Amino acid sequence: VLQESNGPTDAYAAIAKADRLTQEPESIRKWREEQKKRLEELDAASKVTEQEWREKAKKDLEEWNLRQNEQVEKNRANNRIADKAFYQQPDADVIGYVASEEAFLKESKEETPGSEWEKVAQLCDFNPKSSKQSKDVSRMRSVLISLKQMPLSR
């Protein structure tokens, strides 16, 4: 025969009593609460510090970008000035460079038979010692020199 009851039965009462007996002591409970408060305070402080660092890093990055852009613009302006000054030199092609694109185009319009290789030689650097940091172009150099000496017949 089953008994119906709305309250705790004897089995549940025994479990509840055992739970009360195994509860932690008052000092440990207080320590846990204090520890929880300390951890929450430390979390809040670390979040504030992290936000300050983020703001400082953002400002530093913006300042660096401004300085970098200014430096790039200064370099561009200086390079343009130096480029113009170089191309205005009377002996710029003797130094190893074509004086300017305009001069090269002007020379290319005055084409005489057999002068093509002189123009190619003027554009290419055939000195192997001057281009140590660039790619190895010795094969291309030898092909151009051989073509200059014995042009292809058409």
TrEMBL record:
GO molecular function: clathrin heavy chain binding; structural molecule activity
Keywords: Coated pit, Coiled coil, Cytoplasmic vesicle, Membrane
PANTHER family membership: CLATHRIN LIGHT CHAIN (PTHR10639), CLATHRIN LIGHT CHAIN B (PTHR10639:SF28)
Record's bilayer topology term: Peripheral membrane protein
One Gene Ontology biological process: intracellular protein transport
Subcellular location: Cytoplasmic vesicle membrane; Membrane, Coated pit
Keyword Thylakoid among UniProt keywords: no
Coiled coil: 32-74
Pfam families: Clathrin_lg_ch (PF01086)
Gene name of the record: Cltb
Gene Ontology CC terms, in alphabetical order: clathrin coat of coated pit; clathrin coat of trans-Golgi network vesicle; postsynaptic endocytic zone cytoplasmic component; synaptic vesicle membrane
Name the UniProt record assigns to this protein: Clathrin light chain
Family the UniProt entry places it in: Belongs to the clathrin light chain family.
UniProt function note: Clathrin is the major protein of the polyhedral coat of coated pits and vesicles.
Biological classification of the source: Eukaryota, Metazoa, Chordata, Craniata, Vertebrata
